[in-house]
Fold these 4 entries.
Entry 1:
Amino acid sequence: MVYNKAHSDRLSATFAALADPTRRAILARLVEGPANVKELAAPFRMSLPAISKHLKVLEHAGLISRGREAQWRPCKLEASPLKDVADWAEQYRRFFEASFDRLDAYLKGLQTKQKENPEKEK
């Protein structure tokens, strides 16, 4: 994989935004559709300015966008940074899958040897 500083910086911003459980909960809510700040704040015991700070972090990371409909400022999920995270994690999934395949082959080899030589234990 080629190192791309700009891509890495976007990933860093995305991971930083996802590091907080409140922000993850806000994203989970936005999967259902757009919502305003009051709607997003409803399940939390925090002030609207505190929720707004979380929204700014999510917006900076590109995970949400904010529109303007009259006086209503709906927040909307922007999923492309999450795809970048999934793509980044994919290389590690392939690594672990290959490792598990090698372990499985090794264990099957041990089982075969035990069946061929039952009197030999270790």
Entry 2:
Amino acid sequence: MRLNLIQREQENFAGERRPWSLVTRLAVYYTVSAAVLLVAAMSILYFVVVQHINTADNLFLADTLRAVQADLADKRMVSDQLLEHEVPPGTPDLFVRVLDKGTKQVIAEQPEIGGRLSPSMFPEPLSEDRVPTEGIEYKTPSGQWFLLMSASALLDSNSPKPVLVQVAQDRSDDKQFLESFGTLLAAVLLGGIVCSAAIAFWAGKRALRPLEEMATATERVQASQLHQRLGRGRWPSELTSLAAGFDQMLARLEESFDRLSRFSADLAHELRTPIQNLGGEAEVALTRTRTAGEYREVIELSIEEYQRLSRMIDSLLFLARSENAETRLNRVKFKIGPEVDEILDFYDAAARESEVGLTRKGDGELYADPMLFRRVISNLVSNALQHAPTTGQIQVLVVMEPNQPVQIAVQDNGCGIGPEHLPRIFDRFYRVDAARSSSSASSGLGLAIVKSIMELHGGSARAESELGVGTKVTLTFPGEGEGKVER
């Protein structure tokens, strides 16, 4: 069954039509465009040449008819010698014939054309001795081409006698020239199309060479070489934005990879400590027989470590869910004051024990997820309580301005944070100093959760601190209808 499926997939793949490469597409488009232009140009050129030759021949025959009409008007008789004057020397392709208009009998002709062109082959003359501007073409059984034209004339203007003048021109040479000219144009057209295709392939490959170089450069990028960049100066202007976007993607990947590496190291370190504590306590308990009270004490200490691990895992799971694009927010509009007061009441006992004052200033309405909002404020207040001095103050400030984002700040007058630590305090497992990291209640994930929740809402979290003065964390929530679009 599996072999049949594999064979079927291979047949489907073989039957699929592979898409054309960019070089092939550019070459085909360019060649088709060049072919259309060449066909149009050659057709126009051929038409112009044909029209010029036809016009010249018709004009020549019409002038010959006018000259014969003028000469006949001054003569009483027509002879072959008279018509010799109408056929210039060196023009063996011109023929003139004069007929009696009534009887259609030949009066004179020069040179002899009776064997090739009978009088009935010529067109009827126009009325009133008018000379036509265009003749008719005739092909003899032997393959010769002639241009025929006829007109009425008067012999001897003193005692006029109507006659019929017929002129013909052998156009075999013209036809042969036009045929050769058409063949030449067809050869030039074919050669032009072939040259256009070759030039198109060459130009396409040369124009797309930067893409090949870019593909080669991207193939060298590996997890251990994320620092490489394509740069902007070496690429054509059309590829500059692509190179810039790829470099930005590499920068984001490098930053994410570094952050993931640090996170993995921090996670291993954070999990190692409670596991070592649990293992050490168990080993000590097993070194000798213990009383029930001693075993109970070991179990109680183990439970504290288990609870710490559980809190850490819950926080990590929450951070993982918050980074999922499918995470939905249950946004509603609620009053900020009552929610903040409820959180402050929860921490009131711990604050009174440390002689720390908890106050709120300002109020307003917020469009957000109430549960996540309570967790953000709770994390900030809990973090401030851990590091607030005795008889210190923690204040929650709510700032509401028309047509502006809602800002909520949690401010304390503790020891403050050094400027070198401020950019990283929202990173996972990051702690400012050893004193803070020694606290078992702190896992270094509280501010990371705050940042993730604010990003879920399309807002931001910003920290300001001064050593010896205190720390202020400001949360900026977007207004209703703004921020992250829920899916």
Entry 3:
Amino acid sequence: MARYSLFLGLLVLISCGEQKPAEAPFIDPARRTVIPIPSEPDTRPIIVAFGDSLTAGYGVNGGFSYPDFLQKEIAGYRVVNAGISGDTTSGGLARIDSVTRLAPKIVILELGGNDGLRGLPLASTRANLEQMIVELRKSGVRVALAGITLPPNYGPDYIREFEKIYKDLAAKYKLPFIPFLLEGVVGVPGMMQPDGIHATVKGNEVVARLVMQTLKPLL
């Protein structure tokens, strides 16, 4: 857990109300993603980055999220950013159809952090993630799962069980697995925004390289 110490310490300040949350306000679970249609036909196979603010690129200018940098690494695929800041697993499940309609080859699933920060029941988070995985696989999609962790004031038992959700689902469905999406970013100067939660432009480049390592065998 040492590698997460700075990340977790800063999250404690946010969760205790000593700093305004960097996340957007709560997202209605019924909200649907509006995915832009390319101005010209793009027949490349699709990879969808499906998540919350870490995927959406909160706090950086358009074109500098980790999916944007991932696109530069994979010219033969079209990377679609389906991240919504503040989204939860229930919100993701409610908009899963917006992803499957794209008929993607691969989906990078990164959701659950906001569930944990709100102290939502772990059983619900697990069930929502599992249902999304099942729905995506039923559509013929290959799913890569990205995990995250929580601040220490949530207690070791809750944190352990929260992290276990990702490990268990990755093992059960034999998914390519990224245990911690911000590995190599948290605690590194210049990689994190002042809120201590979201990556900078430079940090998003590192996240993209980490994700690329997991995607390579799938391409």
Entry 4:
Amino acid sequence: MIEIRRIKPDEVIAAKRVIYRVAHGIFNDPLPLEESIAYHESRSELKDMDDIQQDYFENGGIFLIMLDDSEPICTGAIRHLEDGICELKRLWLLTDYHGRGLGYRMIQELFSFAREKGYKRIWLQTDAVYQSRALDFYRRLGFYEIPRYTDRTDDIAMELPL
């Protein structure tokens, strides 16, 4: 049974693992998965998840997890960026679950939260080359490109009015 809910502190490591597993395939990482996870963790690449309470829940946001019979399969988050604008973060769905409408379900939950919090626009950044499937998904939802708002030069920025 599929369930979407707010992440619990003891689920953060499993949620990170979902992200690393998906990224490992998308970015064609040559390292074995466990070595890749250790490498990226040593670089604190998901450091915003180390204190979800502060970085999301206390920052005008939420961090959700999707479970399939208690196994984490998807993550997604919203956090405050600036007045009236929130940022979509950490939307990752295990590849085996693609094409079932589950990413859409997760993002609709996040949109509902953002609207309830009074956000007017939602921004995101994604890699246009390696994450082309995500880019297509965002475009189908109505996101359009905007100027980058961070120094990540490989990413494109997108916006959706809520």
